[in-house]
Design a protein that fits this description.
- The longest helix has 26 residues, at 161-186.
- Strands 1, 2, 3, 4, 5, 6, 7 and 8 form an eight-stranded mixed beta sheet that branches.
- By secondary structure, the chain is of the alpha+beta class.
- The chain contains eight helices and eight strands.
- Helix 3 (68-77) runs antiparallel to helix 4.
């Protein structure tokens, strides 16, 4: 069931989720941070069979809407419905403009920090973000939030540095907590089978406690 850990407004400066001409309007979008099935996406044409996320494990995810009004409509329609349910996934694809599962993306305030987070996340020491993406991203400032994978950089802006720091701290606290717990699982410290095709391992990941956070309003709505 949808239970946001945090939400608030950010401006989309540069993102493949939004057409370039729209990102020039400095429009605020409504961002939500919660745990969702790992394959949750905005593909409205995906089949119901594929939309069934029964066996997906939950990952910290940042996603955004055109406005808080759109989010409120979405939240009303999925109230009480499991995030794994096909109906939830259909509504998600209908209302959400962009989504970033943070088992594949890193969030931070500059390219270097994002790269370091990606190397830790992917267990690689050779991660290099494309030079073309870095150049397109431009110089960061005190309001900048970056979300990156190995192929692209998405740039957002908060109203001020304090709001930006709250977003980054909130998101990365949960991501780091999940990462540390996965390390313990894979090292056998929690007594959970480590084979990814083992149903007990998958069941444990699916029911993982991703942290008991009070919902946080970040910035001015």
């Amino acid at each position: 069931i949808l239970k946001p850990r945090a939400f608030g407004n950010m401006t989309v400066v540069r993102s493949s989720c939004i057409p370039r001409w729209m990102s020039n309007e400095a429009k605020n979008y409504f961002f939500v941070f919660d745990a969702l099935p790992s394959e949750t996406n905005t593909d409205a044409n995906e089949s119901d069979f594929s939309k069934n996320r029964t066996h997906d494990f939950l990952v910290p995810t940042l996603f955004f809407f055109d406005s808080k009004k759109e989010y409120d409509m979405f939240a009303m329609k999925v109230q009480g419905i499991s995030v794994r349910d096909i109906l939830f996934q259909r509504m998600f694809a209908q209302y959400v403009r962009g989504t970033f599962p943070l088992n594949r993306y890193a969030m931070d305030t500059n390219v270097l920090n994002c790269t370091n987070r990606l190397m830790t996340l992917l267990k690689r020491d050779d991660v290099k973000l494309p030079i073309s993406e870095i150049n397109e991203c431009g110089l960061v400032n005190q309001s900048t939030v970056l979300i990156c994978n190995t192929a692209e950089i998405h740039r957002f802006a908060c109203n001020d540095r304090q709001t930006r720091d709250k977003w980054v701290a909130k998101v990365n606290k949960l991501c780091d907590k999940r990462s540390n717990r996965l390390k313990k699982i894979n090292n056998g410290f929690l007594g959970v089978p480590t084979a990814h095709d083992n149903p007990n391992h998958e069941k444990f990941l699916s029911s993982m406690d991703l942290g008991k956070f009070r919902p946080s309003i970040i910035g001015v709505l």
